[in-house]
Amino acid sequence: MGNIIFLLLVLASFYGLSRLFVKAGEVAWKAWVPVYNFYVLAKILNKPWWWCLIMIVPGVNIIMYGVYGFYTTRAFNKPSNNDLWLAALLPYFAFVKLGHDETAKLVGLEKFKDEPIGFVRNWVDPIVFAVIAASIIRGYFIEAFTIPTSSLEKSLMVGDFLFVNKFAYGPKLPQTPLSFPFAHHTMPFTEGTKSYLEWIKLPYFRLPGFGEVKNNQIVVFNYPDGDTVALGMQDVSYYQLVRTYGYENIHNPKYIEPQSQRRVGAVVGRPIDKRDHYVKRCVGIAGDTLRVVDGLVTINSQPQEMPLKAQHYYIVKAKPGVLSLDETMGIPPKLLDTLDIYVNDARVLGRNGDTIVYALNMPRDVSAKVKAMPGVMVVEQVISPKGKREFGIFPHAAGYDWNNDNFGPLYIPKKGSTVPIDTHNVCLYKKIMNTYDDGIHEVTVQGAQVLYDGRPITSYTFKQDYYFMMGDNRHNSADSRSWGFVPFDHIVGSPFFVWFSMKYAENNPESGKSVIGSLFKNSKDGKFRWERFLCYVKDGTLHSIKIPFIAVVLLIWGYSKWNKRRKLKQAA
Predict the structure, then answer these.
(1) Nearest to 311 by CA among 379, 357, 358, 367
(2) What is the 3-state secondary structure (H, E, C) of 244-313?
(3) How far is residue 444's CA from residue 289's CA, in Å, rounded to a whole number?
(4) 65 phi and psi, to 5 degrees?
(5) Nearest to 271 by CA among 234, 230, 227
(6) Contacts of 182 (CB under 8 A, 6+ apart)
(7) Which of 61, 108, 534, 569 gives 20 to 30 Å between its CA and that of 365?
(8) DSSP letters of 475-511?
(9) Which domains does the chain have, with CATH numbers?
């Protein structure tokens, strides 16, 4: 309904423009040709012709409508505050009002050139177009992200500030274009106020990109399980909350989650483009059959190389005083900083005689360093045995005794492929069939039959490609092993540049607490990871471009100074 109303508003504005064009000496039919009409209007207003191209860009064109309305109202000699507010906020009505107003005559914008107060000309105009330019860049080319969780440690780390290339796989057009600039799904300084309106909904469409998603690439995507969210616990999967505490409790906004003592709050749904952004490694692409055997990923029966910085939990047994403070058995933060282990990734499991048992989450090279320390007797990787079912592991159904280290085999759907469907495997593809693939459908099991919208089926053909994402932090990552497949229409882009990186005190309480004091410290002792500044990313590996970057900045600065002196000499 919202799309129909918006279409009627646009047509009404075209009608208003047709009357304004006649007043400006143009023929009326030009107002009914989309995009071209705004090219003509830009000429009438004596504004750049390329303004009309912005009207093609979904989301940004709504802001541009207001810009056109504002300047058109002034050009037709209606500079009162009431008229300008109407034009900026409701330009569709403003065009119609101006078209029927006999007193609205074209005087042009030159009349207002010598206004004593140039606020609009000097400030509003640049700010609006800065917002428009930034929105286009952010929505279709490059967007800034911060790594919030440790699921990709130590490839991409908590505190990495990076840019994501949206042309890697093709930028998506916004499906909910009515949204507050630079806010993703929640208004700034609020916990649950939507930053978007769903009055207008556009169908999914993706522009051509530079490539396709491939195995082992790090990918940014919209979190599939985030289609429904409990606003009080947005960092926890709604479906996991329902499985743990029951539907009735989670849909009671006053319910207090026992472990965190947080109120779950209201439950809301989110469109695809407004779901949280996640970043993981794509270990399986469409058409692959994936299996995890004792922590090692195999694709189509071929073992895959473990990422260089992949982390696992290790059981460490050591004599007192080796890794701990003798009195408390706690591990000193300074030692953890030296080993580059987060404090919440290190636990003391207990003491057995003269041996203290720890659980440490670390990469293989760090585990080798720990093993070489005097007094350390055992360093053994934790592996959940085959057949031991773990709660929270996909597909959350009896008959699938899978866990983080022993998972699958699982076929990853490819567009156009068909798989048999029965009462046993329907749980693997149910979310695809009833939500992701082709709108909302009802998939139920009745006796020995699977019903699709009430009709018995024995097979299903997939409508798009799907992917299987995993974190390099293999024992501390909420990924496809928890919530299943990532549809292609959820893919956002690929991280390509880390420009800044710092530690947080909750992970590194010793080195991550001081900002000023860290300015003259190295990466190990201070808050800033200097070696990660100004690096481009390739498959999770960082490559520094500090020297070329500084050289380019100096060249630009030098050219600017030289050019300024040259112009001064010419003027003299």
Answers:
(1) 367
(2) HHCHHHHCCCCCECCCCCCECCCEEECCHHHCCEEEEEEEECCCCEEEEECCEEEECCEECCCCCCCEEE
(3) 25
(4) -55, -45
(5) 227
(6) 134, 135, 138
(7) 534
(8) TS--SHHHH--EEGGGEEEEEEEEEEEB--TTT-TTT
(9) 2-140 (no CATH), 311-381 (3.30.70.1140), 418-461 (no CATH)
CB-based contact 153:246 (threshold 8 Å): no
CA-to-CA distance for 315 and 382, rounded, in angstroms?
A: 6
Task: Mention every residue, 6+ apart, whose C-beta is less than 8 A from residue 142.
Answer: 163, 164, 165, 166
From residue 440, give the alpha-carbon distance in Å to each of 172, 423, 436, 566: 21, 20, 8, 66
3-state helix, strand, coil in the chain (%, to 5): 35, 25, 45
Q: How far apart are CA 523 and CA 405, in angstroms?
A: 33
Q: What are the pLDDT tens digits along the chain (572 aa)?
A: 667 888 888 899 999 999 999 999 999 999 999 999 999 999 999 989 999 998 888 888 888 888 898 889 888 988 888 888 888 888 889 899 998 988 989 888 777 665 555 555 556 667 777 788 888 888 889 998 888 888 888 889 999 999 999 999 999 999 998 888 888 889 888 888 899 888 888 899 999 988 999 999 999 999 999 999 999 998 889 999 999 999 999 999 999 999 889 999 999 999 999 999 999 999 999 999 999 999 999 999 999 999 988 999 999 999 988 888 666 677 888 888 888 899 989 988 888 888 999 999 999 999 999 999 999 999 999 999 999 999 899 999 988 999 999 999 999 999 999 999 999 999 999 999 999 998 899 999 999 999 999 999 999 999 999 999 999 999 999 999 999 999 999 999 999 999 999 999 888 988 888 888 888 888 888 999 999 999 999 878 899 999 998 898 899 998 988 988 988 888 87
- The owner of tokens 């699977």 is 450
Amino acid at 77: N
